[in-house]
Amino acid sequence: MYCLQWLLPVLLIPKPLNPALWFNHSMFMGFYLLSFLLERKPCTICALVFLAALFLICYSCWGNCFLYHCHDSTLPDSAHDPSIVGT
């Protein structure tokens, strides 16, 4: 279960508020996971636990799934606030 400490924080990285960056974010996350799986070769249990957690997050449409954007979920109110655009 040592390899889960490298996989689970990936699920906590927030999706960018700007929709133009969603593709770049998903490509980065996908390449990171692919390179991690090829280089470190995590155990089967860790890989299954991570894939199950990823499936549940994406299936529930909580908004943090980096594979796609759920059409039913809306952007947070802070996405339309012009005072935080420069931060």
TrEMBL record:
The keyword Transmembrane helix is assigned to this record: yes
Domain of life: Eukaryota
Subcellular localization, as worded in the UniProt entry: Membrane
Keywords assigned: Membrane, Transmembrane, Transmembrane helix
Main location as per UniProt: membrane
InterPro entries: BCALP
TM stretches of this protein: 20-38, 45-69
Gene Ontology annotations for the cellular component aspect, listed alphabetically: membrane
UniProt xrefs under Pfam families: BC10
UniProt cross-references to PANTHER family, sorted A to Z: BLADDER CANCER 10 KD PROTEIN HOMOLOG, BLADDER CANCER-ASSOCIATED PROTEIN
The family this protein is said to belong to: Belongs to the BLCAP family.
Purpose: Acts as a tumor suppressor; induces growth arrest at G(1)/S checkpoint and apoptosis via RB1-dependent and p53/TP53- and NF-kappa-B-independent mechanisms. Modulates expression of genes involved in the regulation of proliferation, cell cycle and apoptosis.
Protein name: Bladder cancer-associated protein
